[in-house]
Structure formats: structure tokens, C-alpha cells
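Pinned message: reference record for DUF4442 domain-containing protein
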Amino acid sequence: MEFSPSKLNTFLFFKLPSAFWSGVRVNSISKEKCVVTVKHRWFNQNPFKSMYFAVQAMAAELTTGALVMMQIKNSGKKISMLVANNNGNFTKKATGRITFTCNDGHLIEEAIQKAITSGEGQTIWMKSIGQNEKGEQVSEMNFEWSIKLK
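Predicted structure (C-alpha cells):
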């Protein structure tokens, strides 16, 4: 699969429909960075009229997972990936369009090289920050990815 926003959004439709129907969309992806947005709507809100935390988690995880998938493809090796752990902080009500950004592409590239060289599984923590339209941080989520050669 080519790693472009349109290809990843099509992937969401077929493989992660709950994220797609909640409004999660990839805006951009590069070797180092992935940006995903989701707009607060009736469909993805909680009883407090802000975005449900699980929708934020889907968007945040996608910023990290897309980078992992892209680096695995670039390695040319068969490597499995799995979220081993995660945590999050919610600092402000998530309303309007929320943009999640992960800048940790370099970390996963290093972990993949270690996995290939050593033949042992590796884990890596990657962070995604969610900001509202004013640039205020609404959440910070961390995902521990486990990777290993198949």
C-alpha cells in the first residue's frame, strides 16, 4: 500500500470503519510525522458535549500506527506490530476540529533496525498531541508499540 492520506483514509473505511464513521482522517504523513484530524460532531460526542475520549484515542493511535506501518513497509521485512500499552491525559474539552500530531517517525525507524539486526522484538513509546483550532492542547496520548520479525 502506498502511504498517502487518501490511501490511508480508504484503508480506514475498509479496515477501521468505526474510526472512519467517527470522522477520523489522515491529513498528512511523512517519514517523521503524521497528522490526523477529527471534528467534534453529534455522532462522536460524549454526554458532556465534547468529543468522546475513545474517538480521540483512535485518532491519536492512527498518527503513531501509520508511521509504524510506513516504516515497516520501507524496511522490506515482514514485521508484526501491536499496541502493548497506552495512556492519555485530557486537559481541555475537545470541541471543534482536533488535530493530532506525532513527530516520532525517527524512533520507530531505529527500533525496526534493532529488531532486524538483533532478531529480537522491540518496544517503542510514541506520543501524539491533540490540539484544538486555537492551538490549545486538549489531550496527549502515548502508545507503546511492540514490533518483531515474523
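Pinned by admin. Summary line: The longest helix spans residues 53-75.
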